[in-house]
Specification:
With about 450 residues, this protein is α+β, with helices and mostly antiparallel strands. It is about 45% helix and about 15% strand. The protein folds into two domains: about 15-205, no CATH class; about 220-430, 4-Layer Sandwich (Phosphatase 2c, domain 1), CATH 3.60.40.
Amino acid sequence: MSVNQVSDDTLRPSVWGDSGLLGRVMSAGSRRHVPVLKQGFVFFFVLMAALVSTVIPWLPVTDAPTMWAGVSAALFGVAFAAAASWRPRLLAWEIVIPAADFVAVGLLRYGTGDSRSVFVPIILLPIVWIAVWAGRSNIVWLLVGSAVTFLLPFVIDPGGRAPSEFIRIVFSLAIYATVGLAVNELARQASRRVELSRAQQHAVEREIDKAATIQQSLLPPKTSLLPDMFAVRGTCIPARTVGGDFYDWYPTPDGIALTVGDVMGKGVGAGMIAAAVRSVIRSSSDDLDPAVALRRATTGLASGDSDVDIQFTTCFHARITPSGEVRWADGGHGLALIRRASGLVERLRSSDLPVGLGDHWVSHTDQLQPGDTIVCISDGVLDLFPDELLAFSAFQRLLISTGDSSEIVQRVTELVGDDEQADDVTVVVATFAPAPAPAPALARA
């Protein structure tokens, strides 16, 4: 089959048996013009050989009509290649192009001095063309073509041939066959390496897809499992198939828990660390102190091998009670805020180190009033704003101008748009909206 080194195209059915000389059916697009490019070089050299022989006196022209017939044969190859570029089905007969070249070089050889012609090396171009096709049986066809080139002058003029001419032809065919075998083997090895690389790439892609599916399965369940007094929404848009950001929420014995984390780095490795940290923090749901969850996560990531670098994770973890009390711990994240019902935005600040770097975290306490909203984002959200230095202020203004928790998540998602972002984008929003206390009954008269 023809390799043509251009495609992942569908294999063409062979008209010449198992040798597969007919190669591949090339898809539409720029790749189908490769035969025109290759044949263009052959025609250029044949034409230049004829022109140079005509202009330079010491280059013999023994038969000008035959020489220009060779140019016409090469031109026919160009025309066929051009037609095949627009009618890909013609590439099933791609063998016609190098066949025309063998005839062209044979005619050129006879017209420019026969055995004394200096232009015979042009035959190497169609030889290499056929040699790169898959299958060693193609060597037979390049030998047939080479024989046509050398024996064509015998057909035109049978007489006057010295015995040494036949020996020279046999020797030349042996050399060209060796060249063809070498090129064919190199092409075969290159093709195998490409196929192996593609197989490995597909295997990696399948594993990444599985990792992405697993990561999606670790996202928190529907908010219907949470108490009605909390309106919680969130999203995570990874920069790659598998991201290093994660978020979580779940009911606890004393209310709900919220977590947002950002693992250093991206890809599958960061995704594995994110899954581990999330799982350890969730396993601490029975402990009322959120700082305990961060300490346990660091212990879970610790390695006995001091030479192994552990990726650190910035993490915000909060517990909210039905009374609106917020207990939170921040491991180097620093991107959590409370938007009060009055419109005031307060940033929750902490100087503690990320998970994996520090060994001590402090829990803080705040109080939510009805209508207050706690918001936590990853640094990928700030990358969505044009001015890096003013990005956090711009996000605060977005919060002030936005309504409920669903609208906040929607606005952040709209900022991402269809463009590829540089970092994972994560936002989690929880609004404290307890049911109003029932009005006291009027005393009966």
